[in-house]
C-alpha cells in the first residue's frame, strides 16, 4: 500500500486536472501487474513478439511510432521501439510517475508521453449522429511509420458499456460504435498498424467449469488474426480464491507488408 500511495502522490501533479480522478485505477492496475507478473509473462512476451515481427517488415528508415494504450509500458517492447524509431509517441489516459521515472532512468530519451482519451466518447457525446473518428489525430503525426493499439480496445468497450448503463442519455450502441471506429481508424491509416486486443473472456473455477463468458468486442467483427493466445488476467486469489479470469487475445496486423 505504501508503494501505491507514493505512486499516486507522484503522479498527481503530472496529470491534467480533468484526468486526476483516473489515477487510482491506473495505480490499481500497476499493483495487479506486479502481483500477477508470473501469470502475465507469457502474454507480454507474445505481445512483444508480435510487435517485433511487424517492426521487422518496415523499411530501415523508421521515423515515428505511436502506441495507443501505452499505460504501464508492459505490452510493447519499448526499448526496441526506442532503438528502432526516431520518435515514440505514447498515448493513454495515464502514465504513472513510476513509468516515467523508469523510462528516464533507462535512457529512453525519445519517448513522448501524451495524455489523451482514445475512446472517442467525447466526440460521440457531442455529435451522437456523426461517425466518431477517435484516431483521426494519427494522420497528423509527421512521418508516422507504425501504430500499435496495445490491449486497449476491450477496455474501451467495457468502460463505455458501464457509462451507457449508468446514463440513459447516452447512445445505447455507443460501445459497439466506438469499437468499430477504433478498428476503422487503424484501417484508414496509410501506414502499417498492429491491433493487439483481448476479444473475449471466461471466468473459470478450480474444477474447470466456466462460470461466465462474454464477447469483449460486443459483436463487432474484427479483421483476420495472425496469432491468438490465452492471458490469465486475474489468477486464483486475485479476484477470488475460487476462480480465475482468462482472456483470449488476438494479434491483427493491418496494412502490413
Layout of secondary structure:
Blueprint: H1 2-11, H2 23-35, H3 37-56, E1 64-68, H4 78-84, E2 87-92, H5 97-105, E3 111-115, H6 121-126, E4 144-150, H7 153-166, H8 174-187, E5 192-205, E6 210-215, E7 227-234, E8 243-254
Parallel strand pairs: 1-2, 1-4, 2-3, 4-5
Antiparallel strand pairs: 5-6, 5-8, 7-8
Helix pairs in contact: 1-2, 7-8
Question: What would you note in describing this structure?
Answer:
The protein has helices at residues 2-11, 23-35, 37-56, 78-84, 97-105, 121-126, 153-166, 174-187; strands spanning 64-68, 87-92, 111-115, 144-150, 192-205, 210-215, 227-234, 243-254. The protein has 257 residues and is an alpha/beta fold. Strands 1, 2, 3, 4, 5, 6, 7 and 8 form an eight-stranded mixed β-sheet that branches. Helix 7 (153-166) runs antiparallel to helix 8. It is globular and about 50 Å long.
Number of helices: 8
The major beta sheet can be summarized as: 8 strands, mixed
Number of domains: 1
What's the CATH class label?
Alpha Beta
> What is the 3D shape?
globular
CATH architecture: 3-Layer(aba) Sandwich
Unreliable residue stretches: none
Short description:
The protein is an alpha/beta fold and 257 residues long. It is built from 8 helices and 8 strands; from the N terminus they run H-H-H-E-H-E-H-E-H-E-H-H-E-E-E-E. Strands 1, 2, 3, 4, 5, 6, 7 and 8 form an 8-stranded mixed β-sheet that branches.
List keywords for this structure.
257 residues, alpha/beta, Rossmann fold, 8-stranded mixed β-sheet, 25% strand, globular
